Amino acid sequence: xxxxxxxxxxxxxxxxxxxxxxxAGTAAPDSSRAVEAAATAVAAAVGDAETPALPGSxxxxxxxxAEAQPPPDDDExxxxxxxxxxxxxxxxxxxxxxxxxxxxxxxxxLEGVFISMLTSSDEDEDEEETGYVEPPALVADxxxxxxxxxxxxxxxAQYVDEPAPEKVFTPxxxxxxxxxxxWRSGPSDVWxxxxxxxxxxxxxxxxxxxGSAEIGIDAAFSWAKGYPLYDYETSTRLESPQISHLWLLxxxxxxxxxxxxxxxxxFLRWGLGPRVYRVKESADLDVYELPGPTxxxxxxxxxxxxRLGGDLLFSMxxxxxxxxxxxxxxxxxxxxxxxxxxxxxxxxxxxxxxxxGFSLGLAVQFNGL
Length: 369
Prior knowledge:
Elements: H1 8-24, H2 31-45, H3 105-130, E1 174-186, H4 188-193, E2 198-210, E3 213-226, E4 232-233, E5 237-262, E6 266-289, E7 294-320, E8 324-335, E9 355-367
Antiparallel strand pairs: 1-2, 1-9, 2-3, 3-5, 4-5, 5-6, 6-7, 7-8, 8-9
Helix pairs in contact: 1-2, 1-3
């Protein structure tokens, strides 16, 4: 069957009207009339006389073609009560009961296309409102263990670095030691006269001979200034010391040990050994003639002697950078003595009392020199 060219626009208008009605889903109350009008236009375009009104709603089936009859007036039509049909919501697919009388594949296809378009547009609007599309989760597949093997669970200990072993410092086979200290000595007459004490400077070396045992050799010089408390007189003259001086020069050997008290470099050293001392005392004397007294003259008195004695040394040393040990030292010494009572000096009037004293000071050892 061929269509005249003049009826093609009418056919297109009818199709567009029917499509719009189907997309609206009978939401408007006049959708049934719109569909009837569209059907009439399509039928007129293809040469049909007139399409009768569709019973019920736009979702009812089209009746078979009949001869065209003039439409009855509204007053002449009988009203028939029919059950209310369920109104479909937006996005719902048509049920089988709605399509019982629908013999038009064309209408069903158009309805599905427009519903899918509306549904996809709603989803696009939701995505545009949120602005975020959640990506699919990616889960890495864990490798399966080989037959006979077991999966090793990761523990926190595998990721914790083991602490580096603490460095242990040890003294070298040889060390050069410098000692600067303050000293005092007795017995009581010497202690009182040289009450301010004096200074001592020593230098020596220590040798490790095996394990912690060591042997040391050193030399030192000590000095002190005194204020005499006694005068010396005979039947004819009086000798009065004004300022006195005491010097000690000592050289000796010492055997002992050195112990590591802490891995961080704290050491304790001790040693005991014999020493040779050169003892010298001098004083400035004012001489008076008796009776009087009459000032006669001024002279200087000196006493010196070699003595064999010994000492005991303790040192506490800490290791520092560049192989240097720094610490404190304490020393105790004894010098046997015997007086002759010939000089106007304190040391010549103490009898057989030994010189016993101590020194406290700082010690520095250069390790490995």
